[in-house]
Amino acid sequence: MAIFRQLSLGAKATLAAITVFVSMIASRSYLADSLELRAWRWLLRLQLALFVNSLLLIGSLYIWRSTVSNLCHSPAAESTCFQLWKVVVLAFLALAHSSFFTMFFLVAEEPYLFSLAAYSCLGAYIIMLFFLCILSGMEQAYQLLAWRSGRVVGSLDKTRKLVLRPALAVGVTAVLSVAGILNAAQPPAVKTVEVPIHQLPASMNNLKIVLLSDIHLGPTVGRTKMEMFVRMVNVLEPDVTVIVGDLSDSEASVLRTAVAPLGQLHSRLGAYFVTGNHEYYTSDVSNWFALLESLHVQPLHNENVKISATRAQRGGGGSGGESEDEAWICLAGVDDIEADILHYSGHGMDLDKALEGCSPDHTIILLAHQPLAAKRALQARPDINLILSGHTHAGQIFPLNVAAYLLNPFFAGLYQVAQATFVYVSPGTAYYGIPM
């Protein structure tokens, strides 16, 4: 205990993050099957919020030191403006830290202003932390190069030097944050992509599929945006509409009215849904399936439907019945791969089950939330013609797009994997949490 007290606040935050992370792994391994579902849901969310805030605390200490502590010995430290600046920075950090806790109490039909402010600060926090680190690294690199070359580094006035780096970081953060917020406030862009599938039945040429992904109904996305998405889909007059996961960030009972506009979707051959990782974070997948079915959106839980030019029928037991005499395609969906990691009972990616009755003689379209799942599917079944995914958000904001690009086998857009095999990754219909 004495050693722990002697640790710096940053070291304590790091130790806390490691402790919470270990507890998350332990609870997933040993408590997932023994806890009542509601208790498990709250435990998982609490662990996630504590883990994220432990990591945020490390960054917050660095931001506070860069923007406040380093300036405390300057002549301006006693001014009213500096005292006001300390309050602003403190409020900014407090809002960023509170963002994940809004999941517990502030999810409703429409976003609360506090949730929007908290997640906006979280986005600005990420941008600011990155640029503070970059500017500090550049300064250190310049000093090292100057020292190695034997040159004397010209020094700015000490106060100006202390102020310059945080001022630059704050300025860049403000510009990028405002641009991101304005961009997120706009309707999503409709992108038309032609995919040449040579074995597509002639009767289904120019089949129109509208792809939605990563809507993330929750603290910062509500019914108004959902109504807008549905109107945009209906204008496109799709044959098929698919939602490839991360529709929600909370329980079905909480978001029932927010998701209700999905019942107004008009797709000639049906609307379909597969789970994303965030559906499993809600621990409420069965209720979401029931709610979506009541809205005429069919979940594909490791299963498929056979779609002809005029109708769709549930597959999975071979291709018998009338569909044998028709030209049809197989539209299949798999559970998100994180269902296995979370030990979510009765769920997990099962490609064999999902493609049961789908032969290579027919066009196969697979819905799989994560690009990593798309890669695994193609390794097992290279005869799949098209995989539709989401998950990456194309990184959503800078610099997260760099990490998203490096961590996913497919990032965003259309990829031709083989002569007759394509993967399309949507950058998301909306956004996760941060309204940028």
Keywords:
4-stranded parallel beta sheet, alpha/beta, 7-stranded mixed beta sheet, single chain, 436 residues
Give a description of the structure.
With about 425 residues, the chain is α/β, with parallel strands linked by helices. The chain has 15 helices and eleven strands. The strands form two sheets. Strands 6-5-7-8-9-11-10 form a seven-stranded mixed beta sheet. A four-stranded parallel beta sheet has the order 1-2-3-4. β10 (about 415-420) and β11 (about 420-425) form a beta hairpin. α2 (about 10-30) packs antiparallel against α3 (about 35-65), α4 (about 80-100) crosses α6 (about 115-150) and α6 (about 115-150) packs across α7 (about 160-185). Mean pLDDT is about 90; it is low at about 315-325.
Can you give me a brief rundown of this structure?
By secondary structure, the chain is of the alpha/beta class. The chain is built from 15 helices and eleven strands. A seven-stranded mixed sheet has the order 6-5-7-8-9-11-10. A four-stranded parallel sheet has the order 1-2-3-4.
